[in-house]
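Input record (Table S2, row 229):
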Amino acid sequence: APAGPLAGRHVLITSGPTHEPIDPVRYIANRSSGKQGHAIAAAAARAGAQVTLVSGPVNLPDPQGVAVRHVETAREMLAAVEAALPADAAIFAAAVADWRTASEADEKMKKDGKAIPALALAENPDILATVAHLSNRRPRLVVGFAAETQDVVAYAQAKRARKGCDWIVANDVSRRSGIEGGVMGGDENAVHLITAEGVEHWPRASKADVAGRLVARVAAALGPMEAAS
Ligand code: PMT
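Output record (PMT complex):
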């Protein structure tokens, strides 16, 4: 049996972007690389957890010792997350597209030199809010991320309340973050951990170090496993 502070726990993590198809060759996406979410999955596995990682399209290897579910769209990500429950803790690091196209064209849209097409959008399900509001299978600890470009902590606090999660990890994804390659895509992050107790400002560190620190906090919050009776 695995040893470590998360031994016996199931931890569910989302990572990466989603791709929302426009037609067979085009999609809507964002700059998430999956580095932060995958680092959290690797750290949780090293801490002894059984880990399910639901990942959008990324150019990263599957982390060792982790069960990876590969998905493309937000709706597929939601289905994979629901199928992976129950979990003791769930950490939502994916950059899920808020909107998808209202319909997907069956054939490649042709440039005909006349009208420029307009994309009609539809709202995607909110995976974090859906899981946080579950009445029966809600993980004990639900952790969201907040990617903001201004008023990072204030917006993230509002997001924590609105989405109903326990903690929010807020990060600044603007060009002002000063992080090489940006927080989205780069190798470092500087986050604010927002809980019911308040806000902690964690110094800039590698995504692996942020992941290790977060996983240690998750293990402390879940506490030791109850002895089998
Ligand atoms: O992947 P990297 O390049 O390493 O970059 C890391 C990161 C910047 C993507 C990551 O640290 C991060 O901030 N992830 C959340 C990105 C995001 O989409 O944040 P948001 O503020 O839009 O969403 C808030 C929360 O709701 C997130 O936990 C998100 O996963 C979740 N969400 C959002 C929309 C949606 N339809 N479903 C969701 O579950």
